[in-house]
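User: Last request for today: this protein with fructose -6-phosphate, please.
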Amino acid sequence: MCGIIGFCGYLDAKEELVKGLAELEYRGYDSAGIACFTESGIEIVKSVGKVAELENKLPPRMESGCGIGHTRWATHGGVSEVNAHPHQCGNVTLIHNGIIENYHELAKALENTGRIPVSRTDTEIAAMLIDSLYNGDAMEALRRAVERLKGAYAFCIMFADQKDVIYCIRKGSPLVCCSSEEGSVVASDMVALLRYSKEYFVLPEYQVAKVTKNTITVMELDGTVVSPVMLSIHWDMSAAQKNGFKHYMLKEIHEQPEAIRRTLAPRLKKGKYLLPDFSEDGIQDELFQDTNRIMITACGTAMHAGMMGRILMERLLRIPVNVEVASEFRYADPILDEKSLVIVVSQSGETADTLAALRLARKRGAKTLAIVNVKGSSIARESDYVLYTHAGPEIAVASTKAYTAQLTAFYLLTFRFAYVAGKLSEGQVSDYMKGLNEVGELMERVLEQKDKMKELSKRLTPAQDLFFIGRSMDYALSCEGSIKLKEITYIHSEAYAAGELKHGTLSLITGGVPVIALATQEDVFAKMISNVKEVRARGAMVILITKEGNTTAIEKDICDEHLILPASDDLFAPFTAAIILQLLAYYTSSYRGLDVDQPRNLAKSVTVE
Ligand code: F6R
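Assistant: Here's the final one, the structure of the complex with fructose -6-phosphate:
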């Protein structure tokens, strides 16, 4: 949340900052601002709304080669120009991603220095604190500030008397840096570095990056210079662009077959049998042999992938698996030991609650494995083991390809684990793996039918409330369908375990209320059909999703709309069904005229708790 960027080099800084902010806009879009060193000192321009609004406000003459920029997701203080970053106090101009938890106490302590905040933000207090500690020595001021600041932060700071230099420091919130012929760049996400270089490094916590146009010097707080660990990006600019699609979300929905193939490819061991293999990931079979309990924790969509993982693992491994939303896991005093494996799931690898859950799991002595999309992210670095999903950059706020890539990772893990534990034979695993290998092709067949979903979405567009129902895997997928729909269409929606409806929620099913019923699982198919009849009897408009080859016959008029997925083992139906739910959400949002990629109040990469 909140995108930050700093540029120092040989190009027009304001233009580079605006381009970078547009790329980081998915992290927050309440307001935006930049500050640049110019001939007349530091100039600041801010604007409420999106980066495009800021761009319209920029003066034509603001010549500079060095500046910082911010796109905000409001935490402390409402959405206003005065609360927009950069914030300035005396010598200090800064931008911030994170939350300063002890801002109130710091503000009180600073009152008698004559520094009175004009905004309602925690960030301005940080600017005041650093200014109060600065007497020409930036490292000294930062060292002392770090001792006092509580919370999470990534700062880019300009000191008025150190022209064309940016200091960066972080704790919790992300910051990546790169050097190139055009200059030095720092940003919240490598997406904004791509135009300059494919080689970058993650600024370690509590280290300072001193950024000038020719170099980035990384130092410990005591001034000792250190060499950062360089990483490479394996995708190019086009991966982070719309490439002819109207929205990132639509593009990312279409990228899923490829994302799954990329996630599978390095883990396929071909021989007589097709087995998953994690040698390149450094995950040894001992990890599975030493585990008698699994705990999965994550937030939002990633947690829904975990719900699917749980069903799969319990079914095939026969060991207890729990799933807990990370923000609760942290405070639930979890019972873990060295035989527990905690799997954390995160697209960004930076979600604050998931990161905190991971740290707690490690503290409690559990082994940790992260399913992460962003290379070098905090969660990836801090876990004992990492299984990267290779979904490529996900820009739309609503997660799509990251979700199905996370499912792929769970299937791979489960199959290997089941093989190692002797629950499945080589032949059985191989058959499952062949099924998993074909998922991409099945998804492509569903994508070819997207016009059907487009047409159907017209029926959902006027809805005020909507329900998803399903059992077992279909219930886990219903939860994902529901979050997708509500976050981008603003239609109130709920996912219900179909058998649970009559324990209260059925009172909300009245004439015309849309119910999306997932019935892809043979073992609960007949029961699902009974639940569909129950809602239909109350006047619901039912969209039924089944799979080719469902053997139980159903009456023709059991539903208002019927979508049929290509035949596959029931285990793989969530992949194809996910595409239908994503497309329904996407087209409904488009028909409602909403900002599909950047829905209100939300942002990607939730780095605040
Ligand atoms: C919903 C969505 C969010 C994220 C959640 C976790 O479409 O994208 O629910 O899944 O914020 O984010 P990561 O996976 O980055 O930890």
